[in-house]
Amino acid sequence: MGFREKKNKYSDCAQNEIHEKSELRVMIVTMGLSRIVNPIVNQSNVIGIIESTPRNNTSKKHRILYKALKLFSSLVKSKAKTLRSYAKLMDIPYYYMNNGSDKNLENWVKEQNPDVILVYSMSQLLKGNIFSIPKYGTINLHPSLLPKYRGPNPWFWSYYNKDSKGGVTVHYIDKGEDTGDIIYQESYNIPLGMKSPLMHDLAIGKIGVDLLLKSLENVNDLPRKAQPEESPTQRAGNIKEYEHKNIIDWQNWEIERIWHILRGTELWLNALEQPQGVYKGQRWIIENFQKCQMDSYQVSKVYNENGKYFVACKDGKIFLAVNFNIKNFILNLVR
Predict the structure, then answer these.
(1) 3-state DSSP helix/strand/coil percent for the chain, to nearest 5?
(2) What is this structure's pTM?
(3) How does pLDDT run across 41-84, given as a tens digit for each residue?
(4) Closest C-alpha to 234, from 139, 168, 144, 124
(5) Which residues does 61 contact at the CB level (< 8 Å), separation at least 6?
(6) What are the backbone dihedrals phi and psi of residue 232, each rounded to the nearest 5 degrees, phi first?
(7) In what side-by-side order are the strands of the sheet with 284-291?
(8) Full strand arrangement of the beta sheet holding 138-142
(9) Residue 217: in which H helix or E strand, if any?
Protein backbone atom coordinates (compact mmCIF):
# COMPACT_ATOMS: atom_id res chain seq x y z
CA MET A 1 0.00 0.00 0.00
CA GLY A 2 1.46 3.38 -1.04
CA PHE A 3 1.64 6.61 0.96
CA ARG A 4 -1.41 8.21 -0.67
CA GLU A 5 -3.47 5.04 -0.20
CA LYS A 6 -2.52 4.88 3.48
CA LYS A 7 -3.46 8.53 3.89
CA ASN A 8 -6.91 7.80 2.49
CA LYS A 9 -7.26 4.81 4.81
CA TYR A 10 -6.49 7.11 7.72
CA SER A 11 -9.34 9.43 6.81
CA ASP A 12 -10.13 10.26 10.45
CA CYS A 13 -6.82 12.10 10.66
CA ALA A 14 -6.95 13.68 7.22
CA GLN A 15 -9.09 16.60 8.33
CA ASN A 16 -7.44 19.11 6.02
CA GLU A 17 -7.59 19.03 2.25
CA ILE A 18 -4.59 17.18 0.82
CA HIS A 19 -2.39 19.67 -1.01
CA GLU A 20 0.36 19.11 -3.54
CA LYS A 21 3.48 18.49 -1.50
CA SER A 22 6.67 20.45 -2.04
CA GLU A 23 10.03 18.74 -2.44
CA LEU A 24 11.23 20.21 0.86
CA ARG A 25 12.26 17.32 3.12
CA VAL A 26 10.68 17.91 6.54
CA MET A 27 11.36 16.08 9.80
CA ILE A 28 9.13 16.41 12.89
CA VAL A 29 10.25 16.15 16.52
CA THR A 30 7.41 16.03 19.04
CA MET A 31 6.00 14.21 22.05
CA GLY A 32 3.11 11.90 21.29
CA LEU A 33 0.48 12.43 18.60
CA SER A 34 0.52 16.21 19.08
CA ARG A 35 -1.66 18.73 17.29
CA ILE A 36 0.96 19.64 14.69
CA VAL A 37 1.58 16.14 13.35
CA ASN A 38 -1.34 15.45 11.06
CA PRO A 39 -1.61 18.94 9.48
CA ILE A 40 2.14 19.01 8.75
CA VAL A 41 2.11 15.47 7.34
CA ASN A 42 -0.94 16.28 5.19
CA GLN A 43 0.62 19.35 3.61
CA SER A 44 4.37 18.65 3.66
CA ASN A 45 6.88 16.07 2.53
CA VAL A 46 7.59 14.55 5.94
CA ILE A 47 10.49 12.10 5.69
CA GLY A 48 10.94 11.29 9.37
CA ILE A 49 9.30 11.56 12.78
CA ILE A 50 11.19 11.62 16.08
CA GLU A 51 9.26 11.03 19.29
CA SER A 52 10.65 12.60 22.45
CA THR A 53 10.38 10.53 25.62
CA PRO A 54 7.60 11.81 27.94
CA ARG A 55 8.63 14.11 30.78
CA ASN A 56 9.32 12.39 34.09
CA ASN A 57 8.92 8.97 32.47
CA THR A 58 11.50 7.37 34.75
CA SER A 59 9.43 4.99 36.86
CA LYS A 60 9.42 1.38 35.63
CA LYS A 61 5.86 1.00 36.93
CA HIS A 62 4.67 4.00 34.92
CA ARG A 63 6.53 2.87 31.79
CA ILE A 64 4.65 -0.44 32.01
CA LEU A 65 1.39 1.45 32.60
CA TYR A 66 2.10 3.74 29.64
CA LYS A 67 2.49 0.71 27.37
CA ALA A 68 -0.62 -0.93 28.81
CA LEU A 69 -2.72 2.19 28.15
CA LYS A 70 -1.43 2.36 24.57
CA LEU A 71 -2.37 -1.30 24.06
CA PHE A 72 -5.80 -0.68 25.58
CA SER A 73 -6.35 2.26 23.21
CA SER A 74 -5.39 0.16 20.19
CA LEU A 75 -7.90 -2.52 21.20
CA VAL A 76 -10.73 -0.04 21.73
CA LYS A 77 -10.35 1.70 18.38
CA SER A 78 -8.63 0.60 15.20
CA LYS A 79 -7.23 3.97 14.14
CA ALA A 80 -3.76 5.00 15.25
CA LYS A 81 -3.62 6.28 18.82
CA THR A 82 0.16 6.67 19.23
CA LEU A 83 2.79 8.53 17.26
CA ARG A 84 4.60 5.27 16.49
CA SER A 85 1.47 3.62 15.05
CA TYR A 86 0.65 6.81 13.13
CA ALA A 87 4.11 6.88 11.55
CA LYS A 88 3.81 3.20 10.62
CA LEU A 89 0.39 3.71 9.08
CA MET A 90 1.61 6.71 7.10
CA ASP A 91 4.79 4.87 6.06
CA ILE A 92 7.09 7.48 7.63
CA PRO A 93 10.43 6.49 9.27
CA TYR A 94 10.17 6.75 13.07
CA TYR A 95 12.73 7.11 15.86
CA TYR A 96 12.12 7.09 19.63
CA MET A 97 14.50 9.56 21.27
CA ASN A 98 15.77 9.12 24.82
CA ASN A 99 18.66 11.53 24.50
CA GLY A 100 18.75 14.80 22.56
CA SER A 101 22.35 14.40 21.46
CA ASP A 102 23.21 10.68 21.18
CA LYS A 103 25.24 9.40 18.24
CA ASN A 104 22.60 6.93 17.07
CA LEU A 105 20.08 9.75 16.76
CA GLU A 106 22.61 11.88 14.89
CA ASN A 107 23.31 9.07 12.43
CA TRP A 108 19.59 8.38 11.93
CA VAL A 109 18.84 12.04 11.19
CA LYS A 110 21.72 12.21 8.71
CA GLU A 111 20.41 9.09 6.96
CA GLN A 112 16.98 10.70 6.50
CA ASN A 113 18.67 13.89 5.22
CA PRO A 114 16.05 16.51 6.19
CA ASP A 115 16.13 20.02 4.74
CA VAL A 116 14.45 21.38 7.89
CA ILE A 117 13.42 20.02 11.28
CA LEU A 118 10.23 21.19 13.01
CA VAL A 119 10.03 20.84 16.80
CA TYR A 120 7.05 21.12 19.11
CA SER A 121 6.66 19.78 22.66
CA MET A 122 9.71 17.80 23.68
CA SER A 123 11.15 16.92 27.06
CA GLN A 124 14.79 17.81 26.40
CA LEU A 125 16.93 20.23 24.42
CA LEU A 126 18.34 19.22 21.06
CA LYS A 127 22.09 19.56 20.94
CA GLY A 128 24.08 21.22 18.17
CA ASN A 129 25.09 17.95 16.52
CA ILE A 130 21.37 17.42 15.75
CA PHE A 131 19.84 20.87 15.19
CA SER A 132 22.67 21.95 12.87
CA ILE A 133 22.18 19.06 10.40
CA PRO A 134 19.40 20.49 8.16
CA LYS A 135 20.52 23.11 5.63
CA TYR A 136 17.58 25.36 6.60
CA GLY A 137 18.06 24.82 10.32
CA THR A 138 15.76 23.56 13.07
CA ILE A 139 12.60 25.49 13.90
CA ASN A 140 10.69 25.32 17.19
CA LEU A 141 7.07 26.17 17.97
CA HIS A 142 6.85 27.71 21.45
CA PRO A 143 3.49 28.65 23.06
CA SER A 144 4.38 32.11 24.35
CA LEU A 145 5.42 35.51 23.07
CA LEU A 146 9.16 35.04 23.45
CA PRO A 147 11.23 36.18 25.22
CA LYS A 148 8.42 35.83 27.79
CA TYR A 149 8.01 32.43 29.44
CA ARG A 150 11.05 30.58 28.17
CA GLY A 151 10.92 26.99 29.36
CA PRO A 152 8.73 23.85 29.20
CA ASN A 153 5.53 25.11 30.86
CA PRO A 154 4.59 28.60 29.63
CA TRP A 155 0.86 27.97 29.81
CA PHE A 156 0.90 27.27 33.53
CA TRP A 157 2.72 30.51 34.32
CA SER A 158 0.42 32.43 32.00
CA TYR A 159 -2.55 31.11 34.01
CA TYR A 160 -0.71 31.71 37.27
CA ASN A 161 -0.12 35.37 36.40
CA LYS A 162 -3.69 35.75 35.06
CA ASP A 163 -2.42 37.02 31.70
CA SER A 164 -5.15 38.29 29.42
CA LYS A 165 -3.00 37.87 26.31
CA GLY A 166 -1.13 34.80 25.13
CA GLY A 167 0.97 34.13 22.11
CA VAL A 168 2.82 31.73 19.86
CA THR A 169 6.38 32.04 18.58
CA VAL A 170 8.17 30.18 15.80
CA HIS A 171 11.92 30.54 16.23
CA TYR A 172 15.22 28.94 15.29
CA ILE A 173 16.72 26.54 17.80
CA ASP A 174 20.15 27.41 19.15
CA LYS A 175 22.13 26.14 22.13
CA GLY A 176 19.97 28.01 24.65
CA GLU A 177 16.48 27.30 25.98
CA ASP A 178 14.01 29.09 23.68
CA THR A 179 16.60 31.79 22.94
CA GLY A 180 16.97 31.43 19.15
CA ASP A 181 16.11 34.10 16.59
CA ILE A 182 12.38 34.76 16.20
CA ILE A 183 10.80 34.00 12.83
CA TYR A 184 7.07 34.66 13.37
CA GLN A 185 4.86 35.57 16.34
CA GLU A 186 1.14 35.97 16.85
CA SER A 187 -0.87 36.89 19.94
CA TYR A 188 -4.39 35.96 21.08
CA ASN A 189 -6.73 36.87 23.92
CA ILE A 190 -7.16 34.64 26.98
CA PRO A 191 -10.68 35.04 28.43
CA LEU A 192 -10.99 34.54 32.18
CA GLY A 193 -11.58 30.84 32.87
CA MET A 194 -10.50 29.60 29.44
CA LYS A 195 -9.71 25.89 29.76
CA SER A 196 -6.40 24.58 28.46
CA PRO A 197 -7.80 22.27 25.71
CA LEU A 198 -9.46 25.29 24.10
CA MET A 199 -6.23 27.25 24.40
CA HIS A 200 -4.28 24.37 22.86
CA ASP A 201 -6.69 24.16 19.95
CA LEU A 202 -6.35 27.87 19.26
CA ALA A 203 -2.65 28.41 20.00
CA ILE A 204 -1.27 25.20 18.52
CA GLY A 205 -3.97 23.62 16.35
CA LYS A 206 -4.70 26.85 14.50
CA ILE A 207 -2.14 29.62 15.02
CA GLY A 208 0.89 27.41 15.60
CA VAL A 209 0.25 25.08 12.67
CA ASP A 210 -0.38 28.06 10.38
CA LEU A 211 2.91 29.68 11.42
CA LEU A 212 4.83 26.43 10.87
CA LEU A 213 3.32 25.98 7.41
CA LYS A 214 4.10 29.62 6.62
CA SER A 215 7.69 28.98 7.70
CA LEU A 216 7.96 26.00 5.35
CA GLU A 217 6.52 28.00 2.47
CA ASN A 218 9.10 30.75 2.97
CA VAL A 219 12.01 28.66 4.24
CA ASN A 220 14.44 30.17 1.72
CA ASP A 221 13.89 33.70 3.00
CA LEU A 222 12.62 33.69 6.58
CA PRO A 223 12.81 36.77 8.82
CA ARG A 224 15.16 36.61 11.81
CA LYS A 225 14.82 38.78 14.88
CA ALA A 226 17.39 38.33 17.63
CA GLN A 227 16.00 37.92 21.14
CA PRO A 228 17.25 39.94 24.11
CA GLU A 229 19.52 38.02 26.41
CA GLU A 230 17.20 38.35 29.41
CA SER A 231 13.52 37.39 29.64
CA PRO A 232 11.04 39.78 31.35
CA THR A 233 9.49 36.77 33.13
CA GLN A 234 10.83 33.99 35.29
CA ARG A 235 11.72 30.69 33.64
CA ALA A 236 8.54 28.79 32.85
CA GLY A 237 9.58 25.62 34.64
CA ASN A 238 7.48 22.61 35.50
CA ILE A 239 5.84 22.43 38.93
CA LYS A 240 7.27 19.86 41.31
CA GLU A 241 4.78 17.51 42.93
CA TYR A 242 5.41 18.93 46.39
CA GLU A 243 4.60 22.44 45.11
CA HIS A 244 1.06 21.66 43.94
CA LYS A 245 -0.64 22.11 47.29
CA ASN A 246 0.92 25.50 47.99
CA ILE A 247 0.91 27.07 44.53
CA ILE A 248 -2.35 28.96 45.20
CA ASP A 249 -2.46 31.73 47.81
CA TRP A 250 -5.89 30.90 49.21
CA GLN A 251 -5.73 33.52 51.94
CA ASN A 252 -5.07 36.49 49.68
CA TRP A 253 -6.10 35.74 46.09
CA GLU A 254 -9.49 36.82 44.80
CA ILE A 255 -11.82 34.04 43.66
CA GLU A 256 -11.51 35.08 40.00
CA ARG A 257 -7.77 34.40 39.99
CA ILE A 258 -8.14 31.04 41.75
CA TRP A 259 -10.95 30.00 39.42
CA HIS A 260 -8.88 30.96 36.38
CA ILE A 261 -5.85 28.90 37.38
CA LEU A 262 -7.94 25.90 38.48
CA ARG A 263 -9.81 25.90 35.17
CA GLY A 264 -6.62 26.16 33.18
CA THR A 265 -4.88 23.36 35.07
CA GLU A 266 -7.95 21.19 35.56
CA LEU A 267 -6.31 18.13 33.97
CA TRP A 268 -3.19 17.95 36.11
CA LEU A 269 -2.72 20.40 39.00
CA ASN A 270 -3.33 18.88 42.44
CA ALA A 271 -4.06 22.07 44.34
CA LEU A 272 -7.31 20.55 45.61
CA GLU A 273 -8.01 17.31 47.40
CA GLN A 274 -9.27 15.18 44.54
CA PRO A 275 -12.44 13.00 44.67
CA GLN A 276 -12.51 10.14 47.16
CA GLY A 277 -14.65 7.04 47.72
CA VAL A 278 -16.08 5.46 44.58
CA TYR A 279 -14.61 8.35 42.56
CA LYS A 280 -11.07 7.98 43.88
CA GLY A 281 -8.62 8.40 41.03
CA GLN A 282 -10.91 10.74 39.12
CA ARG A 283 -10.39 14.49 38.77
CA TRP A 284 -12.60 17.45 39.52
CA ILE A 285 -14.17 19.36 36.67
CA ILE A 286 -14.05 23.06 37.49
CA GLU A 287 -17.45 24.63 36.89
CA ASN A 288 -18.64 28.16 37.68
CA PHE A 289 -18.08 30.26 40.79
CA GLN A 290 -20.29 32.32 43.08
CA LYS A 291 -19.13 35.26 45.18
CA CYS A 292 -20.65 35.22 48.67
CA GLN A 293 -19.89 35.51 52.38
CA MET A 294 -17.65 32.62 53.54
CA ASP A 295 -17.16 33.31 57.26
CA SER A 296 -17.98 29.73 58.34
CA TYR A 297 -15.85 27.92 55.74
CA GLN A 298 -12.19 26.93 55.60
CA VAL A 299 -10.48 28.14 52.43
CA SER A 300 -9.14 25.49 50.04
CA LYS A 301 -11.38 22.81 51.60
CA VAL A 302 -13.84 20.87 49.41
CA TYR A 303 -17.43 20.76 50.72
CA ASN A 304 -20.53 18.84 49.71
CA GLU A 305 -23.77 20.63 50.47
CA ASN A 306 -27.12 19.39 49.19
CA GLY A 307 -25.35 17.18 46.65
CA LYS A 308 -23.26 20.01 45.22
CA TYR A 309 -19.48 20.06 45.58
CA PHE A 310 -17.48 23.26 45.89
CA VAL A 311 -14.11 24.49 47.11
CA ALA A 312 -14.20 27.40 49.54
CA CYS A 313 -12.39 30.66 48.77
CA LYS A 314 -12.21 33.72 50.99
CA ASP A 315 -14.88 35.48 48.92
CA GLY A 316 -17.00 32.69 47.41
CA LYS A 317 -17.46 29.14 46.16
CA ILE A 318 -15.99 27.42 43.10
CA PHE A 319 -18.31 24.60 42.09
CA LEU A 320 -16.97 21.17 41.18
CA ALA A 321 -18.23 18.11 39.33
CA VAL A 322 -16.76 14.71 38.56
CA ASN A 323 -17.04 12.42 35.56
CA PHE A 324 -15.77 8.85 35.53
CA ASN A 325 -12.70 8.39 33.30
CA ILE A 326 -11.38 4.88 32.60
CA LYS A 327 -7.80 6.09 32.08
CA ASN A 328 -7.77 7.78 35.49
CA PHE A 329 -9.28 4.63 37.00
CA ILE A 330 -6.38 2.53 35.64
CA LEU A 331 -3.81 5.08 36.77
CA ASN A 332 -5.20 4.93 40.31
CA LEU A 333 -4.86 1.14 40.41
CA VAL A 334 -1.06 1.29 40.01
CA ARG A 335 -0.34 4.17 42.37
Answers:
(1) 35, 20, 45
(2) 0.85
(3) 999 999 999 999 876 544 444 444 445 545 544 444 446 689 99
(4) 144
(5) 334
(6) -75, -10
(7) 284-291, 316-322, 308-313, 302-305
(8) 94-97, 45-52, 25-30, 116-120, 138-142, 165-172, 182-189
(9) helix 209-217
